[in-house]
Amino acid sequence: MHTEQRWGLGLAVALSLWTMLLHISGVYSTRLALAQSLDIVVMIIPIAFIAGAMGEQRRRSDSFGYMRAFRTGVFTMLISWPFSAAFMLLYHKIINPEWLDRLVAFELARLRASGAGASVLAKTESALRARASIRAELTSSVIGTVILGLALSGMLALVFRRRGNRGRT
pTM to 2 decimals? Predict the structure, then answer.
């Protein structure tokens, strides 16, 4: 199995385990304010797995320039996507089908507390509920994976590339 495949599958498993940890601990059902913060913290997982894949590829090669490091990161993310997306569909449709109702209630309560009007509440609920279709979930997950993969790979490739006459690929 290639480096990107191993690290990409590992990334998908790690993200799935993270989601289940937050589910089992009640974060995704009763502590949604905390969930918003932890959804930012989870960025550490793709960073670690992309860095791991780049580090492994760098150790194996005399020539590891920016573009090769960048490709390693992007491929790692893209390989993780179908597995992560499939798990999230399973999570949202079977494991925690109430997630959307809880999210809508949480967001509407937050908006009401800040004095939002009825039209803002209706638009917000409509926008949140539109995210629940399988098509919307898959589309947003692939777009998010590509954008995140490009951004993280671009930044981490600067760290993992080799400079000088050891190779610029």
Answer: 0.86
